[in-house]
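Data follows
____________
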Amino acid sequence: MLKKEKNGSATCLSRQKEGRRDPEIRFFFVILQSGIVNLPFFIYNMAKKKFLFVAQEVAPYLPPEEISTLGKEVATGIHKRGYEVRTFTPRWGTINERRNQLHEVIRLSGLNIIIDDNDHPLLLKVASLHPTRTQVYFIDNDDYFQKLESDEDAVGSNRPDNDERIIFFTRATIETAKKLQWDPAVIHSQGWMSSMTPVYLRQLADTVPFEESKVVYTVLPGEITAPIDPGFFRRLKEEGVREEFLARYEGMELNTELLHRMAIDNSNGVIFMTDEPAPALLEAVKERGIPYMTKEEAETLEAYIDFYDKLSAK
C-alpha cells in the first residue's frame, strides 16, 4: 500500500478556493502567449501523458489485499496528477458485475483469439474506478475466467491452463489498446498474469503502435501453483513471438520465476514488490543495466512518478 504524502489534496483545495492557478498552469499560459511554443506542440506533448496499466488484480473488484490495493492506488494516484490512465485486468469470476456496475463494450467485443486451433471470443467490459472515475477494462471469456470450484484463490493459480489464460489476456489487452488508439508513454504490467505483455510488446511484429512506449514490469508475490503446460513456448511461437528469443530459455524450468525473467528481459524498468527480490531476477536486472525499485523504495506515489519520469526522459 502506498504511503500518503504530507502536502496532499488540502493544498490543492485551498488553491481552488482562492481562485489561484498552480504555477504549472500559469507557466503554460505565459509561454503560449509569448509565442515561444505553439499550441499544436503542447497538444502533442500532453497526448503523450498517457499510461496503460495491465494489472493482475485491482481493488475494489477483488478484496482489498496488498496486490489488488496496489493496482488501484497507482492508477488513481497517477490520474490525480493529471495523466490519462486506462487499466486492463481480467474479469475474474468472483467479480460481481452488478455491484461494480460493469457493462459490455459491444464495439470492442467479439474478437476471436485462436489458441491451439480453438476460437475463444473476447468479451470486453468496462467500469469506472472511484473516486477518480478512471476507466477499467475487464478482459472476459467464458473458457478462462469463470470461477471454478477447484480454484484455490481468486485468480485460479492452480489451474492447468494458466499458460493459455496468460496468452488470451495478453493478446486481448494489446488488440483492445490498438482499437482504442491508445499510445501510452508508459505501459506498466503487474504480476504473472500480465508477464507476457512486455514480451509481446517487444517480440511481435504487430505491436508497432507501442514501440515508443516505455515498459515497466512489477514482480508481485504469489506463484502459479500448478505445473505450466510444456506447450507454452510452442503457443507463444504460434502467436508470433520470435523463435530466437524463446531459444534463450531452453532447458530452464518452466515456472513463475521464468515468466518474470522473460518479462524483465523485455522491460525498460522493474519494480520488485516481493519482500526480497529473487537473486536470479535481481541479477538479470543489473546485467541489463535498467532502473529498478525495491518494495521499500516503492512506498509513495512520488517514487512511482519519479520512476516513470526518468524512464520517459530517456
